[in-house]
Design goal:
With about 160 residues, the chain is α+β, with helices and mostly antiparallel strands. The protein has a single domain, classed as START domain (Alpha-D-Glucose-1,6-Bisphosphate, Chain A, domain 4). Helix content is about 30%, strand content about 50%. The protein contains four helices and seven strands, in the order βααββββββαα. The chain has helices spanning about 15-20, 25-30, 120, 125-150, and strands spanning about 1-10, 35-40, 45-50, 55-70, 75-80, 85-100, 105-115. Strands 1-7-6-5-4-3-2 form a seven-stranded antiparallel β-sheet.
């Protein structure tokens, strides 16, 4: 299964990069994340509880970031398995600025491929692809909220 698209943030490239590379932000943005442990530089072990159609389950896996070119590019490698199947894949993220003034934004372009097996694969790409798009959209919306929180002045600084 292939996925690709882009997401536009109303924030500078550096701020978007900071949040995308933050382990705390990543943990908050992964759907159904129950466990998120750093096991090395840019490497994490995760447990996620996810449901696709009638197939629900808990999945244990690993996430690793590599080919990091601050602040414009990285590759995310994912692998996981649970009672309902397994998944491995990789996504490439390219980050660039676009526009000027009040039309300025940062665009994160992503493309990736995922290999799915087991019962999960039995539901087919026609059903998995839309679910993946929704999950990716929710991931980026969560990242966007976290960027907005960082950019809000703290109450202690407001007079």
């Amino acid at each position: 299964m292939e996925v690709n698209g882009d997401y536009k943030f109303k924030a500078p490239v550096e701020r978007v990069w900071q949040v995308l590379m933050s382990s705390e932000a990543l943990e908050k943005s992964l759907p159904g994340c129950e466990k998120f442990d750093e096991v090395g530089e840019n490497s994490y072990e995760v447990t996620m509880k996810i449901g696709v159609a009638a197939i629900k389950g808990s999945y244990n896996g690993k996430i690793h970031m590599e080919d990091i070119e601050k602040p414009t590019h990285y590759k995310l490698i994912v692998e996981g398995a649970g009672t309902q199947g397994h998944l491995n894949g990789e996504g490439i993220f390219d980050i660039e600025s676009e526009g000027e003034g009040d039309k300025f934004r940062t665009v994160v372009k992503y493309k990736g491929v995922a290999n799915v097996g087991g019962t999960l694969a039995g539901i087919g790409a026609r059903m998995l692809s839309p679910v993946a798009k929704v999950m990716i959209g929710n991931f980026f919306k969560s990242m966007e909220k976290q960027i907005e929180e960082l950019d809000k002045p703290s109450e202690a600084n407001v007079s």
